Amino acid sequence: MVPTRLTDTQRDAALAELPEWRLRGDGLAIERKLAFADFAEAFGFMARLAIHAEKVDHHPEWRNVYNRVEITLTTHDAGGLSLRDVAMARAIDAML
Ligand SMILES: C[C@H](O)[C@H](O)[C@H]1CNC2=NC(N)=NC(=O)C2=N1
């Protein structure tokens, strides 16, 4: 099933519940920057998130430099933000 893109009102309500996440400039994605103690901690987190992403069939865009992980969530199939991104952001927050 193709996910539905959130309306601006739905997006703003979701973001209000996700204070660690920022809306990207174009409004089509949310972003969070994380810092871990070292590379092993960062990569361990990425491994756990990768397993979750496979389970729910929703995948982050991310960049890792040593202990830092920058994550972007968007739904390609919806051309912007969907409830899948909100659920993924919540799951990430709960993993930390
Ligand atoms: C076929 C497969 O279900 C789709 O390509 C899924 C996989 N993971 C995905 N991840 C993200 N972030 N957006 C998608 O639209 C998406 N679609």
Structure description:
- With 96 residues, this protein is an alpha+beta fold.
- The protein has three helices and four strands, in the order H-E-E-H-E-E-H.
- The chain has a four-stranded antiparallel sheet with strand order 1-2-4-3, covered by helices on one side.
- Its EC number is 4.2.1.96.
- This is Putative pterin-4-alpha-carbinolamine dehydratase.
- Belongs to the pterin-4-alpha-carbinolamine dehydratase family.
**Main sheet specs:** 4 strands, antiparallel
Query: How many individual helices?
Result: 3
- Mean pLDDT across every amino acid position: 98
Report helical residue fraction. 40-55%
**What structural class do the secondary elements suggest?**
alpha+beta
Overall morphology: globular
Distance between the termini: 30 Å
Largest sheet: spatial strand order: 1-2-4-3
Radius of gyration: 13 Å
List ligands, each type once.
the ligand C[C@H](O)[C@H](O)[C@H]1CNC2=NC(N)=NC(=O)C2=N1
**Low-confidence parts:** none
Order of helices and strands: HEEHEEH
**Proportion of beta-strand residues:** 15-25%
Number of strands: 4
